[in-house]
């Protein structure tokens, strides 16, 4: 029995039991089977959730790109590694073979070195979904530089905050990007961000839209001429198992985004293993994940996991509705995609459109459908199952986080019977627990609780960049000796898990995690605003949308409310990005607070969700008259 590729449900149970009984033996076997190690590990695992400190495969030496690229050259040199589908369907798709990927990554790595980037340096990558994005992350990994990819939909302020937090020396960007029928001036955003980033020495600029941009002397360099001159061989830097591979920022419920640090060996082993099993990937499959590489889903399941398995991974630059709502299905048909992985928010948007958009295309190549990012509601699940999978493709509802590095809970296609809205069982090696309000583990089924993980797994984030204390407080202090996910979950009678959503102040809008605090901070910068509070409310397509309660300063009270609403959304766009704009804004004279001064978001949430019949326990509420005012305003059907 090989651990690496699970083929029967009974085998899943056996393997899971084995992975709990002997986690080290289990992961050691996986690690031995499939990778190139320059030196074997001395110890599989050491851990302490109190400190917290976790190390996997200590003493091992490797380079992840050697495993994702070089290892495949002999047998898969001509095979397509990355299949790039451009925004414009009239532009030809690009098939980048493993051999070509090898050369392009090495050239890029040599350019980084020539520009003074060394092992351990941080490089910020701010690129649209073009091949250079995948290639530059791999080039960093090739030379041991730590990449920090920032999603190219983030604003200049969000970008500069992230660049400064991890002290990036270099930014890799493009002149601009295509997004459906629009173009976006990315370089302009970078220029604005860099006014606040004295540590950045070099900006490498890829040409994508051929716009006329300003190049700052000494700082900005066109990428292509440098690549053209660079050698196609670059010896991989030999890394320690626990050397950082990348930093990726995720929103917290308060304060600064958290720079989650992922390390090399454990991340590689876990993403490779889970990719293989969750998607039942076979040689010659064409796998497509629609996420952006700016998110963890793209890191783990567009780049590292698929390439570690020698897979063909599709990279799509565009959007689901350009030139029309049939684009996804056109691409599936055109490239004969076998595994398709997307987010519920996309499924809901697609389901709203005419079915003709789907039926025009031949989807018979599909074998497995995936969902990730937020709970998938029953209606969306059935639409996906009926119309895309034609009831023949298992849906893998995969639960995981930026912090977990890889998929934690998911059915294994063709083995685990699926159940709509349930992510089902933990993957091998994953030991979950549900905790009650008192901090005790719940052992029975058919209950809900807070989802925790009680044993380390190889791809867990090791720290928050520059702030280990916050790492400890956020994940390891709520429950003793448990990693706390921040999510609530329900366990059914057979042990299937259903994720019920965040239990903190993170709201998932169209699959993007948004902390309420940074949005409130942005709004509060408006000169007419005194205070604000953001909550989520259910939205047909986005899953959740944002509802803002805003208290105006006296000076703002006489101003036109519609104009204020526009200005507030403008400020949010500048500080965070358009994804964080508010759908509704209600002006109010106060916010419901507890006696200790905390905003009672629970009440605001109920009002936003139109669930005012029962506001729950209001005994600690200091100012009930404010709640009455807010509800009266809603009732008066004020335009909000
Ligand atoms: C992969 C990713 C993490 C948060 C997580 C959950 C929510 C993700 C599911 C889900 C229900 C799912 N990383 N979440 N997947 N909720 N079912 N299958 O999304 O760091 O960006 O977000 O997303 O709340 O804690 S993330």
What would your notes on this structure say?
By secondary structure, this protein is an alpha/beta fold. The strands form 8 sheets. It has an 8-stranded mixed β-sheet with strand order 12-11-8-6-7-14-15-24, with helices on both faces. The model has no long low-confidence stretch (mean pLDDT 94). The protein is globular, with a radius of gyration of 24 Å. Strand 27 (506-509) and strand 28 form a beta hairpin. It has 20 helices and 31 strands. The structure holds 5'-O-(acetylsulfamoyl)adenosine.
In percent terms, what proportion of residues is strand?
Answer: 15-25%
CATH topology descriptor of the largest domain: Rossmann fold
Cα separation of the termini: 61 Å
Number of discrete helical segments: 20
For the record, the CATH architecture of the largest domain stands as 3-Layer(aba) Sandwich
CATH class of the largest domain: Alpha Beta
The overall pLDDT, averaged over residues, is 94
Fourth-tier CATH superfamily name of the largest domain? ANL, N-terminal domain
Q: What is the oligomeric state here?
A: single chain
| Whole-number count of domains | 2
Number of strands: 31
Bound molecules: 5'-O-(acetylsulfamoyl)adenosine
Low-pLDDT stretches are none
Decide which structural class fits the backbone: alpha/beta
- As laid out across the biggest beta sheet, the strand order is 12-11-8-6-7-14-15-24
Major sheet attributes: 8 strands, mixed
- Radius of gyration from CA coordinates: 24 Å
- Helix share bin: 25-40%
């Amino acid at each position: 029995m090989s651990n690496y590729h699970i083929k029967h449900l009974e085998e899943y149970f056996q393997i899971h039991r084995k992975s709990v009984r002997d986690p080290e033996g289990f992961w050691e076997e996986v690690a031995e089977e499939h990778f190139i190690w320059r030196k074997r590990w001395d110890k599989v695992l050491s851990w302490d959730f109190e400190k917290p400190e976790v190390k996997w495969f200590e003493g091992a030496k490797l380079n992840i790109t050697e495993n994702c690229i070089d290892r495949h050259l002999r047998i898969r040199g001509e095979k397509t590694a990355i299949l790039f589908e451009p925004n414009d369907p009239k532009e030809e798709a690009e098939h980048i073979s493993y051999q070509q990927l090898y050369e392009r990554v090495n050239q890029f790595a040599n350019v980084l070195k020539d520009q003074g980037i060394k092992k351990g340096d941080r490089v910020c990558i701010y690129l649209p979904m073009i091949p250079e994005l995948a290639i530059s992350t791999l080039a960093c990994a090739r030379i041991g530089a730590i990449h920090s990819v920032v999603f190219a939909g983030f604003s200049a302020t969000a970008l500069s905050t992230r660049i400064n937090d991890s002290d990036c020396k270099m930014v890799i960007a493009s002149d601009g990007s295509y997004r459906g029928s629009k173009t976006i001036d990315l370089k302009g955003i970078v220029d604005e961000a860099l006014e606040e980033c004295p540590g950045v020495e070099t900006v490498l600029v890829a040409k994508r839209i051929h716009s006329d941009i300003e190049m700052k002397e000494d700082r900005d360099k066109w990428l292509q001429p440098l690549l053209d001159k660079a050698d196609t061989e670059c010896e991989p830097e030999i890394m320690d198992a626990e050397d950082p591979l990348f930093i990726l920022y995720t929103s917290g419920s308060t304060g600064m985004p958290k720079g989650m640090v992922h390390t090399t060996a454990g991340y590689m082993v876990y993403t490779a293993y889970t990719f293989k099993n969750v998607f039942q990937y076979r040689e010659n499959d064409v796998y497509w994940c629609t996420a952006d590489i700016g998110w963890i889903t793209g890191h783990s399941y567009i780049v590292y996991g698929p390439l570690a398995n020698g897979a063909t991974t599709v990279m799509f630059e565009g959007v689901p509705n350009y030139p029309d709502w049939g684009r996804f299905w056109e691409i599936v048909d055109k490239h004969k995609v076998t595994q398709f992985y997307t987010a519920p928010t996309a499924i809901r948007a697609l389901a709203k459109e005419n079915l003709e958009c789907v039926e025009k295309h031949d989807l018979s190549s599909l074998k497995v459908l995936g969902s990730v990012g937020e709970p998938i509601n029953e209606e969306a699940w059935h639409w996906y199952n009926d119309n895309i999978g034609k009831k023949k493709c298992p849906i893998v509802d995969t639960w995981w986080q930026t912090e977990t590095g890889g998929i934690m809970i998911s059915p294994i296609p063709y083995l685990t019977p699926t159940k709509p809205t349930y992510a089902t069982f933990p993957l091998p090696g994953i030991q979950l627990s549900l905790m009650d309000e008192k901090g005790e583990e719940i052992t029975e089924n058919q209950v809900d609780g807070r989802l925790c993980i009680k044993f380390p797994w190889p791809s867990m984030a090791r720290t928050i960049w520059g702030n280990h204390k916050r790492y400890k407080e956020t994940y390891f202090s709520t429950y003793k000796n448990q990693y706390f996910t921040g999510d609530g979950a329900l366990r059914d009678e057979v042990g299937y898990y259903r994720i019920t959503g965040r239990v903190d102040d993170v709201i998932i809008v169209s699959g993007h995690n948004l902390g309420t605090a940074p949005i409130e901070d942005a709004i509060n910068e408006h000169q007419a605003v005194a205070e604000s509070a953001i909550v989520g409310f259910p939205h047909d397509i986005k899953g959740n949308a944002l509802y803002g309660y805003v208290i105006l300063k006296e000076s703002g009270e006489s101003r036109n409310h519609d104009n204020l609403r526009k200005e507030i959304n403008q400020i949010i766009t500048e500080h965070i990005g358009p994804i964080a704009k508010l759908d509704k804004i209600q002006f109010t004279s106060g916010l419901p607070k507890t006696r200790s001064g905390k905003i009672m978001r629970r009440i605001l949430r109920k009002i936003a969700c139109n669930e005012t019949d029962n506001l729950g326990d209001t005994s600690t509420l200091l100012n009930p008259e404010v709640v009455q005012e807010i509800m009266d305003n809603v009732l008066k059907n004020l335009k909000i």
